[in-house]
Amino acid sequence: MSKPDPNEGAPHAPEPTQVDAEHGAIPETGFLGRAIDAFGIVFAIGIIASALILLNEVVLRYGFDSPTIWAHETTIFLCAMAFVYGGLYCVVRNSHIRVVLIYDLVTGRAKRILDAVISLVCLFAAGFFAWAAFGMVTKAVIRPGGGIHFETSGSAWDPIFPALLKIFLFVVLCLMVVQFLIMAVRYLRGTPSKGAAK
Where does the record place the Tripartite ATP-independent periplasmic transporters DctQ component domain (predicted)? Predict the structure, then answer.
């Protein structure tokens, strides 16, 4: 005589739901969004590189009493670049912070219109910050007399990281403007890019 199954009559655990294999840019961002999403790996590698540089610095400083003059500023630069790019990366993945008090109450076309309005507001905000960043770039790159001279950190190593970071911030903000424009148009048309989930 076989033993009774202890699980007999118990409710079965639900089947695991399939996870969407595509966790990248949302369809409304188009080709630019997919490119921005793919390029994010470069900055992820930069963060790993900064951790390795710090580890190297600790070993050199405390193990061999021979610290470098470049590790601290290089680490700050790599992390700053990643944080700046992170804003653009969040835009294309639709993972930025938003207040959803009204947003979660609407569905369908109303939600798409709200998405378009949000994108347009963000477009103007990014445009304003890009304009402000352009002023920083001109001061960091162009001398008052008109010559080209990249702003440096003023340290013993004195790299041009401050100027490069300001230029990068300006470029990222300009890309944000273009990306928000693409998203607003696609939301209003209601036509996500090819291959989007319906």
Answer: 52-188
**What sign for the dihedral angle of Cα 16, 18, 21, 23?**
negative
Instruction: Report CA torsion sign: 94, 100, 104, 105.
Output: negative
Distances (CA, A) of 110 to 32, 104, 106, 158, 187: 25, 11, 6, 53, 10
Other beta carbons within 10 Å of 90: 12
Pair 160, 150: CB distance under 8 Å:
yes
Say what the pTM is.
Answer: 0.81
> Residue 195 is encoded by which pair of tokens?
């291959």
For residue 2, is it within any domain? no
Range of the domain at 39: 27-189
Count how many domains the chain has: 1
Look at residue 85 and tell me if it is in a domain: yes
